[in-house]
């Protein structure tokens, strides 16, 4: 299976006056015109300082700030990533970085497309792994290079959940899954605390920091929105809400999911609820989310 090619964009990662988390930071391209070569490039809207928010390919880290809600291990995961990138002496005001040393870190993103929210879906590299790549070139991302990315590091250290999409090349899914499986077998990071298979959803405190249960971040976001609906008077269960009420929102939260590369189902079909107890019916390492367009 031939490894796919990704556009190489050099630039710098910036966190000062930003709100980074464990799977996304802002990036200022040396040549922002390169974004025009990406799929869905029209969705990318750089801010005044020319930075764009990235979506790190293949991983989903515990939430630092989903609205006013956060997950257990969110801050720890973010701080681990920033330290590995080379940032130090970071001062926060809430979730926003006031200052850091250095202000920016040079690096590279490897990307093919932006997601529906305008974030380049990216592999991130720093240091010598980034310096050897040609700005504006199309780089073949083979397993050896993939294992040099921050994405792979976060997966291998168990700092983020394996969360892949149909847009993630199958060969990359295999490499990332192997890293996640090894981390899970060692109970590293999120895997030592993960409660996704069976958890209790009583109120916001049951799944939020500091004492709530840790679950797959995508499911956490759905549960949080569901609890908001309950607070507004909704009386159905989570699966019912995903199937019905979420369709009335600006976005459909009942994601399409591929099981073991064979069968497509809806996210709601993987959820069984008994009063406040929720069981997720599939192994997190066996699911692929269908990329929204």
Instruction: Give the overall average pLDDT.
Output: 95
Largest sheet: 7 strands, mixed
The computed structural class is alpha+beta
* Distance linking N and C termini: 26 Å
Strand runs, count: 17
Strand content: 25-35%
- List unreliable stretches of 5+ residues: none
**Spatial shape:** globular
- Radius of gyration over C-alpha positions, nearest whole angstrom: 19 Å
What is the count of helical runs? Answer: 7
The amount of helix comes to: 10-25%
| H/E element sequence | EEEEEHEEEEHEHHEHEHHEEEEE
SSE blueprint and pairings:
Blueprint: E1 5-14, E2 26-29, E3 51-53, E4 55-56, E5 59-60, H1 74-85, E6 88-93, E7 96-101, E8 104-114, E9 120-126, H2 128-131, E10 138-140, H3 143-146, H4 150-156, E11 161-162, H5 170-185, E12 198-200, H6 217-231, H7 238-243, E13 256-259, E14 263-266, E15 271-274, E16 277-280, E17 287-289
Parallel strand pairs: 4-9
Antiparallel strand pairs: 1-2, 1-8, 1-10, 2-3, 5-11, 6-7, 8-9, 12-16, 13-14, 13-17, 15-16
Structure description:
The protein is an alpha+beta fold. It is built from 7 helices and 17 strands. It has helices at 74-85, 128-131, 143-146, 150-156, 170-185, 217-231, 238-243; strands at residues 5-14, 26-29, 51-53, 55-56, 59-60, 88-93, 96-101, 104-114, 120-126, 138-140, 161-162, 198-200, 256-259, 263-266, 271-274, 277-280, 287-289. Strands 1, 2, 3, 4, 8, 9 and 10 form a 7-stranded mixed sheet that branches. A 3-stranded antiparallel sheet has the order 12-16-15, with no helix packed on it. The chain has a 3-stranded antiparallel sheet with strand order 14-13-17, with no helix packed on it. A hairpin with a 2-residue loop joins β15 (271-274) and β16. The longest helix is centred in the middle third of the chain and has 16 residues, at 170-185. The chain starts with a strand and ends with a strand. The mean pLDDT is 95.
């Amino acid at each position: 299976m031939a490894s796919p090619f990704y556009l190489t964009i050099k630039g710098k990662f910036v966190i000062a006056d930003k709100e980074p988390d464990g799977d996304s930071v802002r990036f200022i391209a040396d040549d922002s015109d390169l974004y025009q070569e990406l799929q869905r490039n029209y969705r990318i809207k750089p801010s005044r300082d020319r930075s764009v928010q990235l979506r790190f390919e293949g991983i989903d880290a515990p939430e630092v700030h989903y609205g006013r809600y956060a997950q257990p291990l969110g801050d720890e995961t973010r701080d681990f990533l920033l330290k590995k990138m080379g940032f130090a002496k970071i001062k926060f005001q809430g979730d926003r970085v006031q200052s850091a040393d250095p202000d920016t870190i040079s690096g590279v993103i490897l990307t093919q497309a932006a997601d529906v929210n305008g974030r380049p879906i990216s592999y991130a590299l720093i240091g010598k792994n980034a310096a050897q790549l040609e700005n504006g070139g199309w780089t073949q991302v083979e397993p050896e290079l993939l294992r040099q990315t921050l994405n792979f590091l976060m997966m291998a250290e168990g700092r983020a959940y394996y969360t892949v999409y149909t847009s993630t090349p199958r060969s990359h899914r295999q490499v990332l899954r192997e890293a996640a499986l090894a981390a899970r077998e060692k109970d590293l990071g999120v895997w030592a605390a993960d409660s996704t298979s069976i958890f209790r959803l009583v109120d916001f405190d049951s799944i939020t920091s500091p004492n709530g249960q840790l679950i797959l971040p995508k499911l956490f976001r759905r549960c949080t929105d569901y609890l908001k609906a309950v607070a507004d008077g909704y009386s159905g269960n989570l699966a019912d809400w995903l199937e019905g009420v979420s369709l009335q929102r600006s976005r459909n939260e009942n994601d399409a999911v591929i099981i073991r590369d064979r069968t497509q189902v809806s996210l709601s079909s993987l959820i069984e609820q008994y009063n406040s107890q929720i069981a997720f019916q599939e192994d997190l390492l066996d699911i692929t989310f269908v990329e929204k367009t």
